[in-house]
Amino acid sequence: MDRKVIKYYRGLLKEGFANAGTLENPSILLDTVGEKIRICGHAAENHMYVYIAVAGDETVSDCRYLCNCDPTANVVVEILCTLIKGLTLKEAGKLRVDDFAGVLDTRGDKFLEKSKGILELLGRGINRYLKKAS
Q: Residues 61, 55: contact at Cβ < 8 Å?
């Protein structure tokens, strides 16, 4: 595993996972199992749920998650929550893998692969939300 991912993960273990938890009645619910996106690995018990609250102006007001995944996926979802809070859905939909890589200054293969997967999951959720809202 990438040493920068390990360092970030150890910090999460030490200081707590700031974005872990759920939101009641999220505007967008992302589910890796339901979407068949393998961010957490292939074991049946591995899953991730991301809860996103969207304000009336289509700004992400909060983002929380529950996951039973490997450390790299935990790091990626923490970064996702941090990156999208305060962005509009349009801005959040424009995030790229490079935005994740820039947070840790790393280009580790697993980290980039999981970042790509979570962005795909986010994009699907945003599209569903916007279709439902229109």
A: yes
User: How far is C-alpha 45 from the chain's CA centre?
Assistant: 18
Answer for the pair 17, 74: CB distance below 8 angstroms, yes or no: yes
Q: How far is CA 118 from the centre of its chain?
A: 5
Angle made by CA atoms 27, 18, 123, in degrees to the nearest 5: 35
| 8 A C-beta contact, residue 98 and residue 119 | no
Q: In what order do the strands lie in the sheet with 28-31?
A: 28-31, 47-54, 60-68
Q: What is the pLDDT of residues 86-119, one digit of tens each?
A: 999 999 999 999 999 999 999 999 999 999 999 9
Instruction: Please tell me the distance from the alpha carbon of residue 108 to that of residue 96, in angstroms, as a whole number.
Output: 15
End-to-end CA distance of the chain: 43
What is the per-residue pLDDT across 82-95, written as a single tens digit (0 to 9) for each?
A: 999 999 999 999 99
Q: Which residues pair with 65 in a beta bridge?
A: 20, 50
**Is this prediction's pTM over 0.70?**
yes
In terms of residues, how long is the chain?
Answer: 134
